């Protein structure tokens, strides 16, 4: 039976540490500031943005949320980014994804100053991650590594398998594991024998966006399983990309959904914003 990795508790601990560092900065006359930009009415995005706003308040950061209508033009959004780039109170800028169809996501992200890109999505930050000189690492991948570290999981020399090759999770988390001297395999929808690859993993990170796709029979006895997926089923239940009940019989440690990686995403956003200010 696996030990459950309590991401919610670990994120809370990190938020407490951040709060102390914010207080130190404030004593020196500096306050970290985050601007969050939300375009449109996506209900999940609205929830995440509220969570980010609340998290900033809780640790004593300055925050402003720009809620723009669905029909906002690309030009209007670029103008707002320019204003936030120039605003000295703002150390971090985050544009909540996904953006509406008519807006080119890349064009928007490219416009954010790399030194304010606390999401770590700007090509300069992505490039720096590749060469192991990163300033800002995307929040969810950073959160995965932080969970492993805080649980005392040794990464060096381990066989790490990442399932999913998205720019937001799969590719950056693979790069972070590589920089920590894991031997990394990056799997995807065309991987010939996914089960065989999974069964090889000491550390298995799953970010495919398919509910409960990875089952216990695909997990090596004693593996550490990090489930990045958040899927809402028709019956309302929230599940990961890993079938938790069968997987926990094989793994030595596993993240639950909810309460695993998710809460770490916001904790790492606060940490990136704090570091941007420092
Ligand atoms: N600009 C960005 N957009 C998006 C990101 C991102 O990092 N930057 N990530 C996701 C959404 N996300 C933050 O924006 C996020 C997702 C999930 C959670 C979380 O705490 N989840 C909880 C469950 C919450 C629920 O009930 O739905 C959990 O897993 O326990 C926080 C942040 C896409 N967009
Ligand atoms: Mg995904």
Automatic annotation (TrEMBL):
<dbReference type="GO" id="GO:0000105">
    <property type="term" value="P:L-histidine biosynthetic process"/>
</dbReference>
<comment type="subunit">
    <text>Homodimer.</text>
</comment>
<dbReference type="InterPro" id="IPR020867">
    <property type="entry name" value="THF_DH/CycHdrlase_CS"/>
</dbReference>
<keyword id="KW-0658">Purine biosynthesis</keyword>
<dbReference type="GO" id="GO:0004477">
    <property type="term" value="F:methenyltetrahydrofolate cyclohydrolase activity"/>
</dbReference>
<dbReference type="GO" id="GO:0009086">
    <property type="term" value="P:methionine biosynthetic process"/>
</dbReference>
<protein>
    <recommendedName>
        <fullName>Bifunctional protein FolD</fullName>
        <ecNumber>1.5.1.5</ecNumber>
        <ecNumber>3.5.4.9</ecNumber>
    </recommendedName>
</protein>
<comment type="similarity">
    <text>Belongs to the tetrahydrofolate dehydrogenase/cyclohydrolase family.</text>
</comment>
<feature type="binding site">
    <location>
        <position position="230"/>
    </location>
    <ligand>
        <name>NADP(+)</name>
    </ligand>
</feature>
<dbReference type="InterPro" id="IPR046346">
    <property type="entry name" value="Aminoacid_DH-like_N_sf"/>
</dbReference>
<dbReference type="GO" id="GO:0004488">
    <property type="term" value="F:methylenetetrahydrofolate dehydrogenase (NADP+) activity"/>
</dbReference>
<dbReference type="GO" id="GO:0035999">
    <property type="term" value="P:tetrahydrofolate interconversion"/>
</dbReference>
<comment type="function">
    <text>Catalyzes the oxidation of 5,10-methylenetetrahydrofolate to 5,10-methenyltetrahydrofolate and then the hydrolysis of 5,10-methenyltetrahydrofolate to 10-formyltetrahydrofolate.</text>
</comment>
<keyword id="KW-0511">Multifunctional enzyme</keyword>
<keyword id="KW-0554">One-carbon metabolism</keyword>
<dbReference type="InterPro" id="IPR000672">
    <property type="entry name" value="THF_DH/CycHdrlase"/>
</dbReference>
<comment type="pathway">
    <text>One-carbon metabolism; tetrahydrofolate interconversion.</text>
</comment>
<keyword id="KW-0028">Amino-acid biosynthesis</keyword>
<feature type="binding site">
    <location>
        <begin position="164"/>
        <end position="166"/>
    </location>
    <ligand>
        <name>NADP(+)</name>
    </ligand>
</feature>
<dbReference type="InterPro" id="IPR020630">
    <property type="entry name" value="THF_DH/CycHdrlase_cat_dom"/>
</dbReference>
<keyword id="KW-0486">Methionine biosynthesis</keyword>
<dbReference type="Pfam" id="PF02882">
    <property type="entry name" value="THF_DHG_CYH_C"/>
</dbReference>
<keyword id="KW-0521">NADP</keyword>
<dbReference type="InterPro" id="IPR036291">
    <property type="entry name" value="NAD(P)-bd_dom_sf"/>
</dbReference>
<dbReference type="GO" id="GO:0006164">
    <property type="term" value="P:purine nucleotide biosynthetic process"/>
</dbReference>
<feature type="domain" description="Tetrahydrofolate dehydrogenase/cyclohydrolase NAD(P)-binding">
    <location>
        <begin position="138"/>
        <end position="277"/>
    </location>
</feature>
<dbReference type="Pfam" id="PF00763">
    <property type="entry name" value="THF_DHG_CYH"/>
</dbReference>
<keyword id="KW-0560">Oxidoreductase</keyword>
<feature type="domain" description="Tetrahydrofolate dehydrogenase/cyclohydrolase catalytic">
    <location>
        <begin position="5"/>
        <end position="119"/>
    </location>
</feature>
<keyword id="KW-0378">Hydrolase</keyword>
<dbReference type="InterPro" id="IPR020631">
    <property type="entry name" value="THF_DH/CycHdrlase_NAD-bd_dom"/>
</dbReference>
<keyword id="KW-0368">Histidine biosynthesis</keyword>
<dbReference type="GO" id="GO:0005829">
    <property type="term" value="C:cytosol"/>
</dbReference>
């Amino acid at each position: 039976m696996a030990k459950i990795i309590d991401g919610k508790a670990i994120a809370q601990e990190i938020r407490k540490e951040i709060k102390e560092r914010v207080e130190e900065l404030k004593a020196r006359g500096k306050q970290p500031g985050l601007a969050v930009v939300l375009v449109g009415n996506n209900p999940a995005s609205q929830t995440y943005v509220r969570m980010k706003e609340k998290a900033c308040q809780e640790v004593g950061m300055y925050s402003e949320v720009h809620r723009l209508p669905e029909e906002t033009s690309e030009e209007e959004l670029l103008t707002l980014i320019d204003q936030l780039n120039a605003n000295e109170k703002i150390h971090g800028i985050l544009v909540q994804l996904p953006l509406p169809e008519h807006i080119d996501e890349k064009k928007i992200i490219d416009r954010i100053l790399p030194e304010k890109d606390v999401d770590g999505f700007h090509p300069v930050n992505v490039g720096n991650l590749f060469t192991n000189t990163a300033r800002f690492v995307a929040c969810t991948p950073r959160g995965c590594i932080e969970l492993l570290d805080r649980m005392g999981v040794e990464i060096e020399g381990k066989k790490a398998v990442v399932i999913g090759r998205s720019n937001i999770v799969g590719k950056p988390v693979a790069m972070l594991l590589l920089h920590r001297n894991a031997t990394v395999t990056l799997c995807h929808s065309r991987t010939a024998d996914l089960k065989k690859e999974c069964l090889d993993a000491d550390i298995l990170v799953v970010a495919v966006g398919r509910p409960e796709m990875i089952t216990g029979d695909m997990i090596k006895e004693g593996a550490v399983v990090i489930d990045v997926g958040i899927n809402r089923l028709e019956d309302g239940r929230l599940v990961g990309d890993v079938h938790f009940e069968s997987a926990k019989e094989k793994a030595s440690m596993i993240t639950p959904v909810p309460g695993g990686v998710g809460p770490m995403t916001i904790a790492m956003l606060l940490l990136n914003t704090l570091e941007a200010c420092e």
